Structure formats: C-alpha cells, structure tokens
Amino acid sequence: MVHNALTIAIFVMGLLIIGSITMQGAYAAPTVSVSPTSGPPGTTVRVYGSGFTSNGQIHSALWNGTSAYNFDADASGNLNTTVTVPNVEAGLYGFTITDVTTQSTTQTQFTVTQSSTSPTPTSTSSTSTSPSPTPRVPEFGSIVVVLTILIALSITATLTVRKSKTRKSHNSL
After folding, report:
1. Which domain holds residue 70?
2. What is this structure's pTM?
3. DSSP symbol at 75
4. N- or C-end of the chain: fewer Cβ atoms within 10 A?
5. In a domain, 173, yes or no
C-alpha cells in the first residue's frame, strides 16, 4: 500500500514539474535583433523580432528611449520593420521592444558610430519576404535532468519498499 502511494506521488510530482517546464517554454519571452548592429545617423536599420502576440501591437522605445514607435506583429507573431538612425551622439543605444498584449519586453543594442546630420527618424512596417528571425525552441535539457531524477527516486523508493517487505516477511517466519 505504501509502495503504491509513494510511486503515484512521485509520478504526479514529475508530471507537474514537466508541465511547468513545458508551459514556460510555450510562453517564452519575445526576441529581437537588428541589422546592421552599428552605423552613423541616417542608417536604415532592419528590426527583426519573434515570439510576439499574433497580429499584436508592439511598442518600442529606441535610442535609449528618446524615440517611440508602435508596430504590428504579423500573424505568426513576428516583427520585420525598419527605422532610421536619428541625429544622435556616437555611442551604444538600447532598443526596448514590448508586446503590448503580454507586456513581455526584450532588448537589443545598436552602436552609433559617428555624429552627423540625418533625416527625422522614420519607421515603416514591412511585410516583405526578408529573412525573419529563427523562432525560439524551448531547451529540453532541464526536462531530461528532472526526468532522470524522478526515475532515480522512483527506483530507489521501489527498492526500499521491496527491501522493507522482504525483511518483514523473513522476520515473520
């Protein structure tokens, strides 16, 4: 009786842990990248992103928050748009991209290589067939570790219960 209850408890805990890990992978934070990653003011920068809400609104704070844009993700939750580097000082600038629906935020950086006069920052939404980022796939390494631990615990518990039953049956003889 104790053996069955212990085995069931370990099995249920394992399912809960695996379910939790799987759900975390399913709701992974969005990712974003830029191309090129550096250039002078006036450079057109392609912004790629994935993992956003399907057809959802995306808010961005670019150039360390000095410029804000709103974009729409496509049906697959991807972002593919361009922005122009404004007339800012040379240096490292942050891009913060937020999925308005989930409030998930991701960041990347762009290096402005020199200061110069440039046109006013603009953005255009693009539905071209330019390469889009590779979707994130949850890593299963932690699942393997958890399963290995659960199997080891289950085997240990089973052997302990059997050893205990064997002792009791020998003692009763």
Report:
1. 29-125
2. 0.52
3. T
4. C
5. no
